[in-house]
């Protein structure tokens, strides 16, 4: 008994020591990935462009629209995490940061006082940024951004997630090696373009943060295409972030120009951007150069998986072919089932009986990644609340779909969603009224509340 | 005392089609622009969203997208000795309201006037002599030619996403298009719409009689489309709720679908809603405008908005009203025939023949604003005015716009308006009738005009505008001619029943039933400052920094729906302002 | 011009389902036979409806009058089955009744040429309120009973007189139509006036002269407007003529010429028939 107590006491002591070490041991910070001269300065616009690639504005924009003033909550299962003020204000922003401090944030998720940052900040991906882009970003934020004295609400998550030393432990497991390794050698045609695409996707674009599944401790399952699960789909804000690699589904099916158009304008011949990706287009990808968009598209095309994955969704709903669906809807038979009837009464006006919508205007539902997503939240939320495309330079129209949540009961939404998930050759699991009810209440509970009033 | 706001380079009155176009074009010069719209802001979603827009009572009957007479209306009389009375609730015509203006609730008919319509007086005098022009008729040339406007028609059609079939591209005749149209530099941006049964039946009958049917051109997109501003249209789904409604489907060309989200991105463009311009303020010498006074509804006060250029882009009637209230141009006096502001108001002379087919199912609720087939065989350039005894012409057309039941179900004449027989009649005939319509010109006359009413005032205490309008023999002869051409076509289709409705001798203007919202003239354009209010660039002759857009510029009404010409004139004027006026502000003529 | 005006059709008079609005009315039209996906709450029967605007007497008149304007007999529902009186009550209590959108400043010339449009100083609600007692008085004087208690034939004759706004027994300059009204009225048991005035008198003053056209227009609105406005109960008005309501989606059907569209209507709220 005493022995046992001794062992327990020893373990407790070790635990305390580990915690103390976690708290007080200085961080080992990642070195610059390239030796640049101390007086190296970025070309004009390079820093701003690196900021655009990294989509810093998407999260750090102030609530009143002040650039980089911070304060917007990023929803996490543990509570809201508030984006910090990253303007050069010395007191409320990052004005006192040295270049090394800044690099530590970007690479290691450690702030200038040695605090570990929550991984809502995607340093796990930014670790692949080049030193030139780090220096460019630092220059941009220090020299080109107006300081703002906006004081951001302190993030306070529930215990034990407010114990930041836990993040340090998490990082040991969750972070990959720093630095970007070009995956394509000279023997590959187009290697330079593909490597640029790989850099953009793995590094600043941090596509993996949403589009890669996470493990039990919420670590991203893979950071490069060598990892078979990299970019094979994740969940963000309850929505499926689609698998970008699976053949036979969007967006792998799109040709590269359509993929680039989607990123540039939020719309293409098949789809309209929705969910969190809307912000990515709005603040980031619409401003990417055409070469970078095409490089991204080429890279994503290159890393597609040849073999279709087994769907893990329970699917007991028979799938209708495109022809069967078109006939069913076109006949307008009063005896038709509720699902297709609801489609005719609510959706057909824009998406049409062939489910093809209209290029760049009304998204195609056949093969649509949001429609057939394993987690149907995106589809159901879109039916309930509608969706809006962001205004972009080339395609300025904020095309908006109205919400139908006020018009349809949970049962009706479930019937409708199940129908579109299994029409035109779509083959995805049924949606239940309980699913819809859960999504309705999740939307109501979210900080933004209703996206659209029932008017 | 009015609040004074910081000066703008350009202030635009009204944010409908012309205000949006001028905003877009002038913003390219980097000037600071403010558009003042007296109505509400309007976006496709939520304001026109399915299904709430599909409400016949609210929008078709109670005019939810239109201006409320309580806020703005006119008084109307038919003759000079009648007392004009307020147009208390809407009927004969439906001016729009809010952002997008009438561009929200139109059907989308987009035509180019015939070449001879732009120089109608010269055309008549050259071919038949001035003596065939009735004494009280005041038709005039426009001061601008079709050839000059052609690139601007093209611009508007490609901006608004017009579906249609060209008949004459640079002189080359194209099968299936309108063989009588003026040459165009290229075809329409979108192919014609699919056609409804009535349109096909009419076209077949017309073809069999040697006439030349072609698809009616219009701003209902037949396919997805993106215009020069990057704005987008989706394909029309023939919902049957076009005229009087905002488009649920991003399918109807409108300021919303074709301009506004692109315009709102311009940092040098701003707009304010619920801001009604009360008058244009003039410099002491009256030769330039200094800005506008408007009522800021939100602040509850009058505001003086200084500006270097004032664009009147309100509805035609309101442009004229503002000019009369502001002292821009000498008011027209019918006693002397002198004065220009308010001169040459005109309307549109329409008629139609209904046909009933017991055994044909027309599915009348399937329709769009502009679906249909037309003929121009009796157009204004095809008629021997001397021989027929009238000046004018019509296009003739069939196509299904809607099957909304409150707005009316065509019933054989003699069917009672209520009771058991009415009920039986609607059950029997709904979906079994169609009509062929004529849409014709309306000339301008000495005693048809606009001025300020001596009695009635609006909610701001300003004199209301008075409309003096009646039908005239020349135009009644024209529409009776069309009846004589349409009825044989209709008869050849072998309907079970048919009946006609065309204005006859002595017809008096009736303000109650809806006729058309093609109120034109009142600020006619022209080459002669004694008979026109604005010059060929839509610039006020008297106040050179005021430009007046819209159909108020028409010296008489064309045989077509006006929007095509309104759009072309807006682009034409915008180019003149950008390239000629802005570098050197002065009278351009 | 075609002279093929159809002759008066013989219709099958049925017992009026006067106060049976609601599900019973739906059953009459066969609508209830079609499977309905929604369980709409049964509305209060018309005879128990508590008007928002009308007094009990006004409501009784409107029930009886609309039942003649769109009778229950024959094919299709009537004003009663479609709950038109409820619609009119709600409209008059709302913006329409108050002429909220209209220009209602004086001076007024209510006796102006009708072609110059509505010129009464009264709102639609005021027109109903003031006209109904005049019509009831007319019925009492001429036919010895209130409108609702007259036979359907007599009610029709009163409505025809209202449509002309001419007292059929008051004038000598009446044309053939007026003669018909007199005959119809007499057949219904009207007590003929003993002394005919020299000229026919309007039943309603100039300020009220648009009453009939308002009533008829509002009745047809209540028959065909979206059910959310209180009438067109279960979309029976739409179903009867084959209108699809708020479907608004037919791209696939434009080219299907002369094929009846088979599917019933949908309402703005999503009600299906």
TrEMBL record, chain A:
Superkingdom of the organism of origin: Bacteria
UniProt-listed Pfam families: Cytochrom_C (PF00034)
Cofactor binding note: Binds 3 heme c groups covalently per subunit.
Compartment(s): Cell membrane
Domain Cytochrome c residue range list: 42-145, 334-424
GO molecular function (one): electron transfer activity
Segments crossing the lipid bilayer: 7-25
Xref: PROSITE patterns: CYTC (PS51007)
Signal sequence, renumbered to the chain: none
Positions of heme c 1 binding: 56, 59-60
Keywords (A to Z) from UniProt: Cell membrane, Electron transport, Heme, Iron, Membrane, Metal-binding, Repeat, Respiratory chain, Signal, Transmembrane, Transmembrane helix, Transport
Binding site for heme c 2: 207, 210-211
Binding site for heme c 3: 347, 350-351
A cellular component term, taken from the record's GO annotations: plasma membrane
Cofactor(s) needed: heme c
Protein name: Mono/diheme cytochrome c family protein
Source organism of this protein record: Pseudoroseicyclus aestuarii
Automatic annotation (TrEMBL), chain B:
Residue ranges constituting the Glucose-methanol-choline oxidoreductase N-terminal domain according to the UniProt record: 233-337
Membership in a protein family: Belongs to the GMC oxidoreductase family.
The Glucose-methanol-choline oxidoreductase C-terminal domain, residue ranges: 451-570
Pfam families: GMC_oxred_C (PF05199), GMC_oxred_N (PF00732)
GO molecular function: flavin adenine dinucleotide binding; oxidoreductase activity, acting on CH-OH group of donors
Species whose genome carries this gene: Pseudoroseicyclus aestuarii
UniProt entry tagged with the keyword Flavoprotein: yes
Record keywords: FAD, Flavoprotein, Oxidoreductase
The protein's name in its UniProt record: Gluconate 2-dehydrogenase alpha chain
InterPro entries on file: FAD/NAD-bd_sf, GMC_OxRdtase_N, GMC_OxRtase_C
Lineage per the UniProt record: Bacteria, Pseudomonadati, Pseudomonadota, Alphaproteobacteria, Rhodobacterales
UniProtKB/TrEMBL annotation, chain C:
Pfam families per the UniProt record, alphabetical: Gluconate_2-dh3
Region (Disordered): 165-200
InterPro entries: Gluconate_2DH_su3, TAT_signal
Top-rank taxon, per record: Bacteria
Record-given protein name: Gluconate 2-dehydrogenase gamma chain
Protein source organism: Pseudoroseicyclus aestuarii
């Amino acid at each position: 008994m005493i022995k046992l107590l001794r062992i327990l006491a020893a373990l407790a002591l070790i635990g305390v020591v580990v915690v103390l070490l976690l708290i007080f041991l200085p961080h080992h910070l990642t070195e610059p990935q390239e030796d640049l001269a101390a007086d190296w300065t970025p070309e004009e616009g390079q820093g701003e462009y690196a900021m655009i690639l990294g989509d810093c504005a998407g999260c750090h924009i102030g609530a009143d629209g002040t650039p980089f003033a911070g304060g917007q909550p990023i929803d996490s299962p543990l509570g809201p995490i508030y984006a910090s003020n990253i303007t050069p204000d010395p007191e409320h922003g990052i004005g006192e940061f040295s270049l090394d401090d800044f690099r530590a944030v970007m690479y290691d998720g450690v702030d200038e006082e040695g605090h570990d940052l929550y991984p809502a900040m995607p340093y796990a991906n930014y670790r692949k940024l080049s030193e030139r882009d780090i220096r460019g970003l630092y220059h941009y934020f220090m020299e080109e951004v107006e300081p703002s004295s906006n004081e951001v609400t302190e993030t306070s998550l529930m215990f034990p997630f407010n114990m930041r030393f836990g993040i340090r432990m998490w990082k040991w497991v969750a972070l990959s090696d720093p630095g970007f390794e070009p995956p394509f050698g000279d023997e590959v045609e187009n290697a330079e373009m593909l490597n640029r695409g790989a850099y953009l996707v793995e590094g600043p674009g941090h596509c993996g943060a949403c589009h890669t599944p996470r493990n039990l401790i919420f670590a991203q399952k893979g950071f490069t295409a060598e990892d078979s699960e990299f970019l094979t789909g994740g969940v963000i804000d309850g929505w499926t972030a689609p698998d970008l690699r699976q053949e036979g589904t969007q967006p792998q099916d799109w040709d590269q120009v359509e993929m680039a158009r989607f990123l540039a304008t939020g719309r293409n011949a098949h789809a309209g951007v929705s969910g969190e990706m809307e912000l990515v287009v709005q603040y980031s990808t619409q401003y990417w150069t055409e070469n970078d968009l095409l490089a991204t598209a080429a890279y994503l095309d290159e890393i597609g998986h040849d073999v279709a994955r087994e769907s893990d969704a329970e699917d007991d709903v028979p799938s209708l072919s495109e022809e069967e669906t078109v006939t069913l809807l076109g006949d307008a038979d009063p005896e038709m089932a509720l699902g297709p009837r609801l489609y005719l009464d609510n959706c057909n006006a824009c998406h049409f009986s062939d489910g093809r919508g209209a290029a760049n205007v009304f998204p195609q539902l056949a093969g649509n990644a949001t429609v057939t997503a394993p987690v149907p939240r995106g589809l159901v939320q879109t039916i309930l609340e509608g969706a809006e495309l962001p205004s972009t330079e080339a395609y300025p129209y904020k095309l908006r779909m109205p919400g139908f949540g006020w018009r349809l009961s949970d049962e009706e939404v479930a019937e409708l969603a199940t129908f579109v998930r299994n029409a035109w050759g779509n083959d995805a699991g049924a949606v239940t009224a309980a699913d819809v009810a859960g999504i309705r209440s999740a939307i109501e509970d979210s900080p933004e509340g209703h996206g659209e009033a029932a008017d | 005392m009015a609040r004074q706001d910081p000066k703008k380079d350009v202030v635009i009155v009204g944010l409908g089609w012309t205000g949006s176009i001028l905003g877009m074009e002038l913003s390219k010069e980097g000037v600071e622009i403010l558009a003042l719209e007296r109505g509400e802001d309007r976006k496709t979603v939520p304001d026109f969203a399915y299904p709430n827009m599909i409400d016949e009572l609210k929008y078709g009957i109670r005019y939810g997208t239109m201006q409320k007479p309580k806020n703005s209306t006119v008084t109307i009389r038919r003759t000079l000795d009648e007392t004009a009375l307020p147009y208390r609730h809407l009927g004969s015509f439906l001016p729009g309201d809010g952002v997008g203006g009438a561009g929200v609730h139109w059907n989308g008919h987009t035509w180019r006037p015939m070449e001879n319509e732009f120089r109608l007086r010269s055309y008549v005098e050259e071919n038949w002599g001035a003596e065939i022009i009735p004494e009280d008729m005041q038709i005039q040339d426009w001061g601008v030619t079709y050839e000059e406007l052609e690139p601007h028609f093209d611009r508007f059609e490609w901006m608004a996403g017009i579906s249609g079939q060209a008949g004459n591209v640079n002189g080359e005749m194209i099968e299936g298009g309108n063989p009588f149209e003026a040459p165009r530099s290229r075809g329409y941006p979108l192919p014609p719409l699919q056609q409804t049964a009535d349109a096909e039946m009419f076209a077949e009958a017309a073809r069999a009689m040697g006439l030349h049917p072609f698809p009616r051109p219009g701003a209902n997109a037949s396919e997805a489309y993106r215009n020069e501003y990057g704005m987008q249209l989706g394909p029309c789904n023939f919902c049957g709720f076009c005229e009087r409604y905002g488009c649920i489907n991003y399918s109807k060309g409108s300021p919303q679908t074709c301009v506004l989200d692109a315009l709102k991105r311009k940092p040098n463009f701003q707009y304010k809603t619920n801001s009604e311009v009360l008058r244009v303020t003039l410099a002491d010498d009256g030769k330039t405008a200094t800005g506008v006074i408007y009522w800021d509804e939100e602040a509850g006060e009058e505001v003086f908005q200084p500006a270097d250029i004032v664009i009147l882009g309100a509805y035609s009637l309101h442009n004229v009203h503002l000019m009369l209230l502001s002292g821009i141009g000498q008011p027209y006096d019918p006693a002397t025939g002198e004065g220009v502001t308010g001169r040459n108001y005109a309307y549109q002379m329409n008629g139609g023949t209904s046909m009933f087919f017991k055994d044909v199912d027309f599915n009348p609720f399937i329709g769009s604003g502009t679906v249909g087939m037309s003929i121009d065989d009796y157009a204004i350039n095809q008629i021997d005015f001397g021989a027929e005894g009238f000046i004018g012409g019509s296009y003739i057309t069939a196509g299904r716009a809607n099957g909304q039941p409150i707005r009316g179900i065509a019933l054989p004449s003699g069917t009672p308006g209520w009771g058991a027989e009415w009920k039986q009649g609607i059950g029997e005939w709904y979906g079994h009738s169609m009509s062929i319509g004529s849409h014709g010109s309306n000339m301008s006359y000495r005693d048809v005009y606009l001025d300020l009413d001596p009695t009635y005032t609006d909610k701001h205490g300003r004199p209301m505008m008075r409309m003096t309008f009646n039908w005239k023999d020349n135009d009644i002869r024209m529409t009776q001619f069309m009846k004589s051409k349409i009825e044989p076509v209709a008869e050849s289709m072998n309907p079970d029943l048919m009946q006609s409705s065309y204005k006859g001798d002595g017809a008096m203007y009736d303000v109650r039933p809806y006729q058309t919202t093609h109120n034109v003239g009142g600020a006619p354009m022209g080459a002669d400052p004694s008979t026109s209010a604005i010059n060929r660039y839509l610039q006020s002759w008297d106040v050179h920094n005021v430009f007046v857009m819209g159909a108020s510029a028409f010296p008489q009404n064309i045989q077509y729906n006006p929007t095509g010409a309104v759009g072309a004139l807006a682009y034409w004027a915008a180019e003149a302002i950008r390239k000629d006026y802005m570098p050197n502000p002065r009278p351009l003529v | 011009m075609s002279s093929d005006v159809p002759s008066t059709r013989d219709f099958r008079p049925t017992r009026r389902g006067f106060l049976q609005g609601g599900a019973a009315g739906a059953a009459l039209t066969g609508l209830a036979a079609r499977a309905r996906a929604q369980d709409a709450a049964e509305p209060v029967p018309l005879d128990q409806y508590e008007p928002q605007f009308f007094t009990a007497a006004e409501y009784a008149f409107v029930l009886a009058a609309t039942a003649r304007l769109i009778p229950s007999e024959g094919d299709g529902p009537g004003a009663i089955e479609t709950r038109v009186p409820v619609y009119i009550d709600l409209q008059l209590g709302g913006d329409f009744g108050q002429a909220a959108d209209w220009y209602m400043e004086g001076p007024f010339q209510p006796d102006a040429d009708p072609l110059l449009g509505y010129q009464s100083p009264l709102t639609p609600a005021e027109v109903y309120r003031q006209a109904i007692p005049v019509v009831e008085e007319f019925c009492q004087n001429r036919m010895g009973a209130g409108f609702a208690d007259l036979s359907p034939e007599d009610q029709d004759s009163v409505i025809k007189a209202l449509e002309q706004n001419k007292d059929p027994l008051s004038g000598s300059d009446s044309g053939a139509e007026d003669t018909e009204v007199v005959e119809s009225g007499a057949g219904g048991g009207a007590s003929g006036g003993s002394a005919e005035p020299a000229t026919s008198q309007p039943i309603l003053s100039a300020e009220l002269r648009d009453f009939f056209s308002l009533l008829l227009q509002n009745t047809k609105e209540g028959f065909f407007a979206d059910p959310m406005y209180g009438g067109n109960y279960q979309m029976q008005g739409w179903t009867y003529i084959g209108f699809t309501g708020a479907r608004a989606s037919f791209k696939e059907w434009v080219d299907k010429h002369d094929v009846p569209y088979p599917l019933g209507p949908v309402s703005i709220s999503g009600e299906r028939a």
